[in-house]
Specification:
The protein is about 60% helix and about 5% strand. A hairpin with a 2-residue loop joins strand 1 and strand 2.
Length: about 120
């Protein structure tokens, strides 16, 4: 039996949070068509329709709601277990950098070059 990928499950949880393919795809940082294809593949793999699609939008089916309730806890536990592994606390964390448009690319490139040289 083939199991869904963790990415498919994460994206299903994201869809469940937003209830909209466009917003969910944006949150997952992928195109809407790629996101939709992942959800279709997930449904094919599981053999059950999780999301009801229509011209007026989409929503979770009863099976989708039940699956979401279980899978969000499983993914949460998996993330907790992985984060508790020795050495994970010291792992690199994402860095978000913002800059005012008035400073321009020159200043940003200079700062990025310094950061890359020293980290």
């Amino acid at each position: 039996m083939e199991l869904p990928s963790i990415q498919q499950l994460r994206n299903f949880v994201i869809y469940s949070k937003y209830g909209n393919f466009t917003a969910a795809a944006k949150a997952a940082n992928i195109t809407q068509s790629a996101f939709s294809a992942q959800m279709k593949k997930l449904e094919e793999l599981l053999g059950v329709r999780l999301i009801e699609r229509s011209n007026r939008g989409s929503h979770l089916t009863p099976e989708g709601k039940a699956f979401y309730t279980k899978i969000k806890h499983i993914l949460g536990e998996l993330e907790a277990v992985v984060s508790e592994l020795p050495g994970r606390a010291a792992a690199a964390q994402p860095l978000a950098v913002g800059i005012m448009l008035s400073l321009g690319d020159v200043h940003m490139n200079r700062h990025l070059a310094y950061f890359q040289d020293h980290h």
